[in-house]
């Protein structure tokens, strides 16, 4: 995403020569990954490896009630590691909470930050890590690459397999005064270690399984088509698409740990890809729609994704055919045919789940008038910059009207 | 490779139940990667990001004469970073050299280690990092996971794109008294950042281009078939195979920067895979042969690899077909057919380069008697443990006789 932000600032400078130079450099940063059933038990050794004497443990009341915080404390104690627990995480973490957390961290002389939870918990931990090591307030770091000094070692355990915050260089914190969600983006926010234990994930509802897998699928597809996709992100995208296509249906039907585990792997692959390659116009629209109508990504993707893919087809024929080949598990007569039949198959796939396929199903008729201003916002979303085909607000509006 | 070593110790304990449990946990650790023409210019910012005030710069006389060390010093100075230069690297670095280097590091109060060079330079830097932060002598750390305390930040720039030391968790140092090469293996040896600048790589000879690409191809194939290959290593293997098949011929024929760059990407993909998945019987044999007859890996692979693949065919039919599909760029009627025709195509590929295809071409007739003892050594090589089909020394000897 640094790539993306470099990219964005170069585009804004309208300096095509610099842009070409810049595109020749690509970056790929991910945490060390420890994946598998029971991998939570490695948390203590991981902390020791990063020199932990006293771990700063971040979580929330839901995870605590499920018993995972207690479990982690016992694992740390068994390795002779001291800990201090910071439980005050709320959904959509706010600036002052992060700043209070940093104060608490410094006062207690902790040396490694460990978070167990969903996106809010992990983003809170990232925010605390920034302030504790770089000082100031969190607003100082809004945007890309504003963090100068190294963060304390971070070890994250995800409980949702959706947000990708345990893999990515992103952190979202609400600025209360301005009432905006700040994006803080820097490679130093990639945690040192992500521990993904499928046994923690198996309590998800069918609805949540479907929506988070579709979210990962959209990440994988848009990252594959991104203008800054690289040979390091592209194999990860294709692997994620393959795994989700083969495993979402059995996961929903049987809830088997085996299928859930494969979806969790797919989400990791997709996060590796999008964290480093960025996304596209579909996510730009999803962000605007989600902000306005308070809906999650997973809800919007089945409505928008294939229409945005058709919009991008001509500019990405060969890559769209790669996606088609993975979906269909074979090549057809031409790239165009493989691409198009792949997109049709993707539409059938979405239709086989209990999800909305039209915008009118989730947005009131009376709200339709807001689409134009939404699309005008969406063209400025960072994701729109890496879309393979330039998209003006009129193009985005045409897409929204088509799927209405 | 930690996986591999866990695996190895479990196998030695002959505890099948623990083995099964262990196999459910997989790890994937790679450095942050910055790839592209001119990426050397990012070295200063990378050092700052890791808190550098004084960089410990490791290289050798060849790289120095080529001007790269001077270039790096200027880049650091431009960012206001002090440096101290440690030039005393020799091929196949020895224990006392590493220990002297650590003394020099500590005496000079450096805080980040930067290495520019091939495998010897980077392995020397890793050895210095271990002693400087963990004390003792390098022999104390032989084997897997013997390093307890975190290492200083390491930023590596490879000049060969062959060894993979800039990506991997391996370090090879010679124990002078025992006259053996020690393998030191630990995740803490994965550098923080690997900067791969194809402009540094473009001075390689055709022979070196061919041999290092074939080495990377063998890494990719054996890692894909490994018993501990994971969904994180497998896409990287297939990408490497694809890139080498499509780009080695043009790279040798035209020497174009574009093809060389793609081979360099392939080597990174292959290193990500083998560092985390381990290798197989072909590398076990290559290590023994290489040790005895002082030949490089790249020379042995075209002789052994396809015969070892045929030996493994029945135990890995589906994965061997995946490899065939990438090589042929299509599936044939059955998995077996795709796999076998893929192996034939690989033989044709090797035969199209100026390389030996029979063992008798590189080993004297009078040395043939040593093959049996070589194979008895090779079965105990760590690589043999992750081969998809168990291989006794008699099996390895039959392979050697077949390719004689």
Written description of the protein model:
The structure is a homodimer of 404-residue chains. Chain A is an alpha/beta fold. The first copy, chain A, folds into two domains: 32-201, Rossmann fold, CATH 3.40.50; 204-402, Dehydroquinate synthase-like - alpha domain (Dehydroquinate synthase-like, alpha domain, Up-down Bundle). Helix content of chain A is 54%, strand content 12%. A six-stranded parallel sheet of chain A has the order 2-10-7-5-3-4, with helices on both faces. In chain A, helix 3 (43-49) packs across helix 5, helix 9 packs parallel to helix 11 (257-277) and helix 12 packs across helix 16. The longest helix of chain A has 21 residues, at 234-254. Chain A is globular, with a radius of gyration of 21 Å. Mean pLDDT of chain A is 89; it is low at 1-23. Chains A and B meet through strand 1, strand 2, helix 10 and helix 11 of A and strand 1, strand 2, helix 10 and helix 11 of B. Strand 1 of chain A pairs antiparallel with strand 2 (32-36) of chain B, so a sheet runs across the interface.
- Domain module count of chain A: 2
SSE string of chain A, helices as H and strands as E: HHEEHEHHEHEHEEEEEHHHHHHHHHHH
What is the CATH-assigned architecture of the largest domain in chain A? Up-down Bundle
| CA-based shape of chain A | globular
What would the keywords be for this entry?
homodimer, 404 residues, alpha/beta, Rossmann fold, Dehydroquinate synthase-like, alpha domain, 2 domains, six-stranded parallel sheet, 10 strands, globular, disordered N terminus
């Amino acid at each position: 995403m640094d790539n993306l932000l470099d990219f964005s600032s170069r585009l804004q400078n309208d300096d095509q020569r610099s842009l070409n130079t810049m595109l020749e450099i690509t970056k790929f940063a991910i945490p060390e990954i420890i994946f598998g059933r029971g991998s939570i038990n490695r948390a203590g050794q991981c902390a020791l490896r990063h020199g932990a004497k006293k771990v700063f443990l971040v979580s929330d009341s839901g995870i605590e009630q499920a018993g995972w915080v207690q479990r982690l404390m016992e694992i740390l104690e068994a390795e002779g590691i001291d800990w201090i627990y910071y439980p005050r995480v709320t959904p959509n973490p706010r600036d002052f909470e992060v700043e209070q957390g940093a104060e608490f961290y410094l006062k207690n002389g902790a040396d490694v930050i460990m978070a167990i939870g969903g996106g809010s918990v992990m983003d809170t931990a990232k925010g605390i890590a920034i302030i504790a090591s770089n000082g100031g307030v969190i607003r100082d770091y809004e945007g890309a690459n504003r963090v100068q000094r190294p963060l304390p070692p971070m070890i994250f355990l995800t409980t949702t397999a959706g947000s990708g915050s345990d893999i990515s260089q992103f952190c979202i914190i609400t600025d209360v005064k301005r009432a905006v969600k700040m994006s803080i983006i820097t490679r130093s926010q990639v945690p040192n270690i992500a521990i993904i234990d499928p046994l923690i994930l198996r309590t998800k509802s069918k609805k949540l399984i479907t929506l988070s897998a579709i979210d990962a699928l959209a990440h994988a597809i848009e990252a594959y088509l991104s203008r800054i996709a690289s040979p390091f992100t592209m194999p990860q995208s294709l692997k994620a698409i393959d795994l989700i296509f083969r495993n979402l249906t059995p996961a929903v039907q049987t809830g088997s740990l085996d299928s859930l585990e494969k979806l969790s792997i797919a989400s990791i692959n997709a996060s590796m890809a999008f964290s480093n390659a960025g996304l596209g116009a579909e996510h730009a629209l999803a962000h605007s729609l989600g902000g306005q109508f308070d809906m999650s990504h997973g809800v919007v993707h089945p409505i928008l994704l294939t229409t945005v893919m058709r919009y991008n087809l001509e500019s990405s024929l060969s890559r769209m055919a790669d996606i088609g080949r993975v979906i269909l598990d074979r090549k057809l007569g031409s790239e165009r045919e493989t691409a198009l039949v792949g997109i049709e198959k993707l539409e059938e796939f979405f239709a086989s789940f209990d999800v909305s396929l039209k915008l009118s199903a989730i947005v009131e008729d009376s709200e339709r008038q807001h689409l134009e201003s939404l699309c005008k916002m969406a063209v400025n979303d960072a994701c729109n910059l890496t879309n393979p085909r330039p998209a003006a607000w009129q193009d985005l509006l045409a897409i929204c009207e088509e799927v209405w």
